[in-house]
Amino acid sequence: MFAQQQGQPTLSVTAHGAQNLQDVETIGKQDPYVQFSTDLQNPKSFQKTYVHKDAGKTPTWNQSFTFNLAGEPELFVEIMDEETTADAVIAFAAIPINQVVHAPGGTFNGIFDVYTPSGKAQGEINLTLTAHNVPGQNTSVVQPGGQPVKGTSHISEAHQKRVKSLANKEKAADVGTAAFGGLLAVGAGLLANKLVNDNKKEEEAKKEAERAAAAERERFENEKKNLEQQRHQFEQQQQHQAQQQQQHIVQGQHGKDGQSHFQPQDHYQGGSGHHDQGKHKKDKKNKHHGGSDSDSSSDSDSDSDNDKKKKGKKWDQGRSYSAGDKVKYHGDKYICLQSHTSQSDWIPSAAHSLWRRD
Fold first, then answer.
1. Cα four-point dihedral sign 166, 172, 173, 178
2. Which candidate, 121, 125, 104, places its Cα nearest to that of 36?
3. pTM above 0.70?
4. 11, 111, 208, 268: which has the fewest C-beta neighbours closer than 10 Å?
């Protein structure tokens, strides 16, 4: 607040803030500030607050100003939106100073209506006004911390004329900016056309390269898709074959009644086992081909070698075993009862239909 001359009538104005203002910004939020004067005829007499950026409809300022009074009857208020060209009028009002002079202590904390340039009441501004050294001033004590009360404001014809003039300047600036922008756009368009004509072949070559790249990408994606399908089909076939193999193994172990049909004694009981049958067939084969004693001896040596191979093997998972094969498992010896490929849950000590302790 500026220093006051002793005895000089003055008016102190504190602009707190405004609310419910109209929005004059088409893009983004408006940037309001407020300016005051007691003399419309002197544009330089206006004092203004700082600009509250992006405040929209509810700016705050909390700034104070002092005006010398020489019988001026009203304080003129204008709320503006800062623009890059001409600032736009958000609202305005004329506030009679007389209501301040007659308020207790010459101080009035008021809420005042403001008006659009067309004269529509829209929004309010909160001002604290204090008159000093004004004849007829109410000098009673002011109670601190009082709440703002509704004050009197109106439209001054001369003030509205000024505000409309400001609004017209702002519109003219917008039109000029748009026209200039249009000229720039036209110029840019002409330049662009010239560049297009001058570089037509280059653009066509670029487009052709893009089409070729797109076709190559499409071909690659199709090949990738086909490979994925083939891999999926292969995995399904592998899974199906594994299931069939396991099913055959299970069916070989159990009949429809769920009991094992393998008879280990067939291999080891004299006369009726497969071992004897196999031996009988071998003897017949030797006789059919006219085999000599030396041939029989050779076959016996071969059988002996096979027996040696079957003895002392350590049982392994995933290995193929034939009936009669012998293995060791956890220090014990077992003999294979029927051909199979070993699995993790068919260990010799548990799979009694496949193995017998030797």
1. positive
2. 125
3. no
4. 208
